[in-house]
């Protein structure tokens, strides 16, 4: 299961790390777009398998941020 960026913006932080358990609706990352912080939440329960983007990187809409097992 992949959690993708809902919009283009800068990844300012992850709220989870590899191996963390994640619940549906939990914040996993925060993007900054147009000087607004936008939380990215999980649509499923799972365990974080991988973090794909580097903090500080500009990500595109639909780009994978987090993989869940």
Overall description:
The chain has 69 residues and is mostly beta strands. The chain has a single domain (2-63), classed as OB fold (Dihydrolipoamide Acetyltransferase, E2P) (Beta Barrel). 0% of the residues lie in helices and 54% in strands. A four-stranded antiparallel beta sheet has the order 1-8-6-3, with no helix packed on it. Strands 5-4-2-7 form a four-stranded antiparallel beta sheet, with no helix packed on it. A hairpin with a 2-residue loop joins strand 4 (27-33) and strand 5 (36-41). The mean pLDDT is 96.
How are the SSEs ordered, and which strands pair?
Elements: E1 2-4, E2 9-14, E3 21-22, E4 27-33, E5 36-41, E6 46-51, E7 58-59, E8 64-68
Antiparallel strand pairs: 1-8, 2-4, 2-7, 3-6, 4-5, 6-8
Q: What does the overall shape look like?
A: globular
In total, how many beta strands? 8
By DSSP (H or I, 4+ residues per run), the number of helices equals 0
CATH superfamily: RNA polymerase II/Efflux pump adaptor protein, barrel-sandwich hybrid domain
Helical proportion, percent range? under 10%
**How many domains would you count in the coordinates?**
1
Main sheet properties: 4 strands, antiparallel
Gap between N and C termini: 7 Å
**Classification by helices and strands:** mainly beta
Average residue-wise pLDDT: 96
Question: Per CATH, what is the topology?
Answer: OB fold (Dihydrolipoamide Acetyltransferase, E2P)
Side by side, the strands of the main sheet go 1-8-6-3
Give the helices and strands as they follow along the chain.
EEEEEEEE
Q: Write down the Rg.
A: 11 Å
Question: How large a portion of the residues is in β-strands, by DSSP E?
Answer: over 45%
CATH architecture: Beta Barrel
**What are the low-pLDDT stretches, counting only 5+ consecutive residues below 50?**
none
Name of the CATH first level: Mainly Beta
């Amino acid at each position: 299961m992949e959690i993708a960026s809902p919009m283009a913006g800068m990844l300012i932080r992850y709220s989870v790390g590899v191996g963390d358990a994640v619940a549906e609706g939990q914040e996993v990352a925060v993007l900054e777009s147009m000087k607004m912080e936008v939380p990215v939440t999980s649509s499923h329960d799972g365990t974080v398998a991988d973090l794909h983007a580097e903090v500080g990187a500009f990500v595109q809409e639909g780009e994978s941020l987090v993989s869940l097992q």
